[in-house]
Amino acid sequence: MVYHIPALLKESIEGLNIIPEGVYVDVTFGGGGHSAEILKRLSSGKLIAFDQDEDAEVNIPDDDRFIFLDQNFRFLENNLRFNGISAIDGLLADLGVSFHQFDEPERGFTFRQNTRLDMRMNQNGITTAETLLNSFDEEALANMFYNYGELTNSRRIAREIVAARKIKPLRNVDDIIDVIGRLAPFRQEHKFFAKVFQALRIEVNHEMESLREMLVQALNVLKPGGRLVVITYHSLEDRLVKNFMKAGNFEGEEKKDFFGNPETPFRLINRKGTTPDEAEIEQNNRARSARLRIAEKI
Q1: Which of the residues 112, 144, 258, 296 has the least number of beta carbons within 10 Å of its own beta carbon?
Q2: Is 241 helix (H, G, I), strand (E, B) or coil?
Q3: pTM, 2 dp
C-alpha cells in the first residue's frame, strides 16, 4: 500500500528555490516524498523534517544530511534551536492528511468505514473525536461545526448529538452517521460528512492554532530571500496562509509606511496560488483540492 502521493510535488520543490548548501525544513514529513526530492538537490546542505505521527518514522531515509523530529510543527523554533539551527533557507508544509492516515481504518479519519472515532495525528494524544462528541456542550459543538466545517446547520447538528448521547455514547463512525445523517442535504451526503469529519479532525489536532504558530515562527527563522512553501486543502487554512503571506498577519490587513507603501515581510511568488492540472488530478484524485502558495522573505 502506498503511504502517500504528494500533491504538486514538482511545483512545490521548484518553489523552494533550493540552494545546494542550504538548510531546509519539511514540517510535514509523512511519506517522505517532498523530503526525498529536497535531499536530491542538496550537496552539503541540511534537511530537518517534522512529523508527530509515529507511523511516519518507517519512511526516514538513511542520510547524514537528514534530521527527523517526532514533534508537532508548532514547536518549530525551539526544536531548530535545540539542534543548533537559528536560520533556514526554506520551509515546506503540505497540510493534507496522508493516504496512510485515511486508509488505515483504526485511525478513524474517514466516514467510509465503521471504526472508532479517533482522528489523532499524534497517537499519544489524549483527546479523540469520540471524546469531543461526548463531552463538548451544545454551543461548543455548534461553534466547532460552523467554524471548522463551515456547516450552516451547525446548531441543529449539535442539538441532535447532545440528545443522542444522553441515550448512549457515540463511539463509532456509524453512531454519528445514524444521528445526523438525515440533516445532510439531498445528494450532498458525501460533502456533508466530509465537512463534519474535517471539523472534528481540526479540533482534535488543534490544526488552526498549530498552523498560526508555525507560520509566525517560520517568518522568524527564514533568512532574507528564504522561501515559505505551503500546500493547503481547504478554505480555512488557505485563507490563513494567503493573508499571512500577503500582509504578515492572519487578518490580511496591509500596513503602510509613511509614504503609503505596503509593509509586508514577504514577496509573493505565485500571487493567486497554484492548483494541480488535469493530468495530476487524474493520477491522484485526492490532490484536487490542493493549492500551493509560495512567498519569499524580504
Answers
A1: 258
A2: helix
A3: 0.94
Q: Is beta strand 222-232 parallel, antiparallel or unpaired with respect to 291-297?
A: antiparallel
CATH fold label, 118-205: DNA polymerase; domain 1 (1.10.150)
Domain range annotation of the chain? 9-99+208-297, 118-205
pLDDT at 262: 83
Q: Are strands 266-268 and 23-26 parallel, antiparallel or unpaired?
A: unpaired
Q: Is the dihedral of CA 198, 201, 204, 210 positive or negative?
A: negative
Write the pLDDT tens digit of every residue in 149-159: 999 999 999 99
Q: Grid cell 487554512 — which residue? A: 237
> How far is C-alpha 253 from the chain's CA centre?
23
pLDDT band at 260 (very low <50, low <70, confident <90, very high): confident
Q: How much of the chain exceeds pLDDT 90, in percent?
A: 86
Question: Is residue 101 over pLDDT 70?
Answer: no
The 8-class DSSP code of residue 97 comes to P
Its CATH architecture, for the domain 9-99+208-297, is 3-Layer(aba) Sandwich (3.40)
By the 10 Å C-beta count (0-12 exposed, 13-18 middle, 19+ buried), 230 is classed as: buried
User: What is the DSSP secondary structure assignment for residue 185, as one 8-state letter?
Assistant: P
